[in-house]
Amino acid sequence: MSHPLGPDYIRAIAPYQGGKPIAEVAREFGLDEAKIVKLASNENPLGMPESARKAMAGVADGGRYPDGNGFELKAALTEKYGVPAEWITLGNGSNDILELAARAFVQTGQSVVYAEYSFAVYPLATQAVGARALVVRAKDYGHDLDAMLAAIEDDTRLIFIANPNNPTGTFIPGEQVEAFLKKVPAHIVVVLDEAYTEFLSAEQQYDSIAWVAKYPNLLVSRSMSKVYGLAGLRIGYGIAQAGITDLLNRIRQPFNVNAFAQAAAIAALRDTDFVARSATLNAAGYRQFTTAFDEMGLQYVPSSGNFVLVKVGEDAGAGARVNLALLKQGIIVRPVGNYGLPQWIRISIGLEQENTLCIAALKKALV
Ligand SMILES: *Cc1c(COP(=O)(O)O)cnc(C)c1O
Fold first, then answer.
1. Which cofactor does it need (predicted)?
2. By alpha-carbon position, which residue is closest to atom 12 of ligand 1?
């Protein structure tokens, strides 16, 4: 299938498997699109904030190139976080930031450290530059930071940490992350991927942006796809000192973030009501799912994100089987066999009614 002239390390890549689109499931299973519930991609079930919709509609002309430097959006981020614009990199989704980090800091043959059961883009970004992955065994489905430190080799140039982690939802307290940063050699860049940080409880929250001033090798990555509801627009950002940011800026596409996404992001960042409402809805939905799992006697990993990983059987076919049984009922979740978790599925937390339908379908799928 893959062209023989492609480098071996590119041909070895397993393509990213996303959540199935609603239209595809409707076609494959002969279902009505309107009745399908998609809880597969950790999107915000409220959709885009109204403020962002309005801002997007106000973009004068899609026939003009966007501001390639994202002046106004960076100004909004500067206002929010108190960091200089020279510390901000905008990305076409935070996925872009993760890839830019690998391309900017890792040469072919060098190594990258990340955890087992962590985000699927880390192996992709690593392999795309022909680097070696040092995958560190998870501890209780989350990152084992001591083992990650011990895994560092002479040629390690990058470490990916997801906090909270996807697909497991595990969380590392801020003090532990900072203790880790203190011990990582200065020539290794640490990408702290915080796509779900806005869902953290008040007790869990920590100030990673303040760490950027202390650690010249830290790159904090944030997404607008999850709590901010802009997944379809593709927008995220990285915050790091000017030295890192300068390199990312040299290799990014000149117009990597489109005009509609920039306008929508400015509005969404300021829409604190929407963020609060989304986090509250998520907390209620999480209780709804975990209460049902407890009643059903299902094991789950306590999650700090907007999704939950639940074990649906003991055999290696369980996740795929239950996933199919749910698809037939019009419920799209995420099988996670590709993460090495074939007995589990990951369910994104939806609206109350969507969660109810998912729980009912899961009960049927498990009999
Ligand atoms: C969803 C996700 C991202 C990337 O999201 P974008 O849509 O590209 O911003 C990054 N990291 C983790 C852990 C995620 O779950």
1. pyridoxal 5'-phosphate
2. 195
